[in-house]
Design brief:
The chain is of the alpha/beta class. The protein has one domain: Ethanolamine ammonia-lyase light chain (EutC) (Rossmann fold). The protein is built from 8 helices and 6 strands; from the N terminus they run ααβαααβαβαβββα. A 6-stranded mixed β-sheet has the order 1-3-2-4-5-6, sandwiched between helices.
């Protein structure tokens, strides 16, 4: 292998490893999504090392946080989780929320407070959604960093969230970032999947992504 290629690989690998250990600036993210109300929770993983070595702890909600969560029956809930790359969440989650929340509201959906979850895996959204009585939960989470991208956001949509749901019961929108799927396109896809899930009564393998190529809703101010 040429020296330049070897050094490029080492640099990319080091950046990916650093991204896994990146931390979310919760205060900055809360300010970035204002005026949306924000709640903060954490998983049962006490630190980053435990989170990486014990995935099961990242799927469990701290009992004190569960007891403190308000009830929002029937709402659509966004859970913003650090996941395996907090950098991607910090950069992409506010953009996606800014694009998606107006679309969902215009479609007649009630949006609950944004729940900011630390040391979180995807399934933590099930526990949060169950505790709050949400009709549907969308978990925005940092995706595992690759050698070419350390800023990617994933979205996992689950109808009727509750503990015990499996990955087969979710739909995923991945690679949300400027170099992949931009925030507006991801918001359009989320809107389509949400409507299809409500009509079908299911998310996951039963719900096929057959989104049309035309926009689902006209931009604000247009008929």
């Amino acid at each position: 292998m040429p020296t330049a290629a070897h050094l490029d690989f080492q640099e990319a690998h080091a950046r990916a490893r650093d991204a896994v250990h990146s931390t979310l600036d919760a205060a900055a993210l809360e300010a970035a999504v204002a005026p949306l109300p924000v709640l903060r929770v954490a998983s049962q993983a006490p630190d980053r090392r435990s989170y990486l070595l014990r995935p099961d702890l990242g799927r469990r909600l701290r009992e004190a946080d569960r007891a403190a969560l308000p009830a929002v029956p029937g709402c659509f809930l966004f859970v913003v989780a650090d996941g395996l790359c907090a950098t991607g969440v910090q950069e992409q989650a506010p953009k996606l929320l800014a694009a998606a929340v107006p679309l969902l509201r215009r479609a007649g959906l009630a949006i609950g407070p944004v729940v900011l979850a630390s040391q979180a895996r995807v399934a933590l959204g099930d526990a949060i959604g169950e505790a709050m009585g949400a009709a549907m939960v969308a978990v925005l989470i940092g995706e595992r960093p690759g050698l070419s991208a350390t800023d990617s956001l994933g979205l996992y949509l689950t109808l009727a969230p509750r503990r015990g749901r499996t990955d087969a019961e979710r739909n995923c929108i991945s690679n949300i970032r400027p170099g992949g799927l931009d925030a507006r396109a991801a918001a359009e896809k989320l809107l389509w999947l949400t409507g299809a899930a409500l009509r079908l009564g299911a998310t996951g393998v039963a719900l096929k992504d057959e989104q049309p190529n035309t926009p689902l809703l006209a931009p604000e101010g247009q008929a």
